[in-house]
Every structure is written in structure tokens, then in C-alpha cells.
Fold:
Amino acid sequence: MSALAQERALGDWLAKGLRCIGQIAIQSGDDGGFVLRHREDRERTGLVVSQRADDAAELARFDDAGNYRPLKTAPTLRHGWKLRLANLAELRLALDLFYPGRLAMFAAFEKDELVTTPLRDTLGRQTGMYRIAAQIREDQTDELVGRFCASNGGCLRTIQWRRDAAGTVPSTQLPPDKFDPRHDQTGGAEPVVPLLCQEACNLLVAEARTVVQANR
Ligand code: SF4
Structure:
């Protein structure tokens, strides 16, 4: 999906009142611009101001403690910043740096064009050192996904994939809300642009491999 199509979709979501994405609040300015900040910083003063969409990449890189964030949808976005953006194009670019690929996924979902991949298929196509990840048992998969993907401490994405081609739920340990695109995965109750997960990420695959290795 083109950047322009994503931009149009984003404009529609804002017009419908979807003003949060993940841990970020989107505020419109009178000049056609936008201001982004951490949702928990909306009442806070003394935020460090940035002006370039590209700055989002740096803001997303480390958490409050300075640790690298390998999973950009983990609920660990740092606090203390404010990003001023001149227009919708800049807003799209910044959000795509905070949460790579997520605008395109939600736009595809809304058009009924989102393609998802069952976890077993994702594991089955691994090669090299990750090939053994496919050997993870069903009970272990249930536990792993329930722990690793949980919104509370794991990942804020809304899971759209199933565990296998038969449509098994990814984990019985996750609440039904974890699969509902309308649900605010941060625990708030605001209308959100959801962070959809269309297939298991590399980090979950790596963790499955670790579980299998521990079996041996
Ligand atoms: S598989 Fe999806 S929901 Fe789970 S941690 Fe990875 S990106 Fe998040």
C-alpha cells in the first residue's frame, strides 16, 4: 500500500476520532500540524521538543532506562518528549517509524485485505538455526504466546493470526480482547488505531527455539 493511501486512511481515522496509537497520543494543531507525545505525558510539562518526523526513530529506540527496544510494539515507549509535525505526511512518516508497518496493516484490515499466517506455518518455514522452533509442543506454544505476546508487559499488538490452519486460538491464556482491533491494548479506554499482528514476529520465533532447546 502506497504512502499516499496510508496517509488518506490516517486522515480518515483522525476524522473519526481515533487519536491514539499504541502508547502515543495524537493532537491536532490549528495550523494543520500535529503534536505527538506519550499518552501518559499529556498533562506533563517540560517535555523535550523535536520537530522532525525522522526523530521518531531515535525516540522509539530506547526505553526510559536506556535499554534498546527490539520490539517496537512493546509497552516500553520512553516518556518525556514531544514531537511537532508540520502536516499529515510528516505524521504518517513519524508513526511508521514508531510502529513500523502498522498503518498499512490496519488500512488493509479495513479493506478486508489483511493476509494473516498461522503460527505453525511461520514456524514451519524457518531455516537454519531457527528450524527447530517448529518442534515446540502445543502446551508450550500456548504458554509461550500467552506470556510473550501479553499486552501487559509483552506486546501491544492485536493478534490476528491463528495457531494453526484449523483456526486454533493462539493461546488460551490471552483474554478475548487481545484479538479485538477495537480494544485499547494499553489498558485505557480510548478509540485507537490498533497495532495489528498479522503473523508471528522473529522474536517470538526465537523464543520458541529457546523453549525447544530447553526441552533437550
Ligand atoms: S508475535 Fe505479534 S503479538 Fe506476539 S510479540 Fe510478536 S509482534 Fe507482538
Q: What stands out?
A: The pocket of iron/sulfur cluster is lined by residues 73, 148-149, 154-155, 157, 159, 197, 200-201, 203-204 (CB under 6 Å). Residues 119-215 form a domain with the Alpha-Beta Plaits fold (CATH 3.30.70.2320). The chain has a mean pLDDT of 97. Strands lie at 20-21, 24-28, 34-38, 48-50, 81-85, 158-159, 192-193, 196-197.
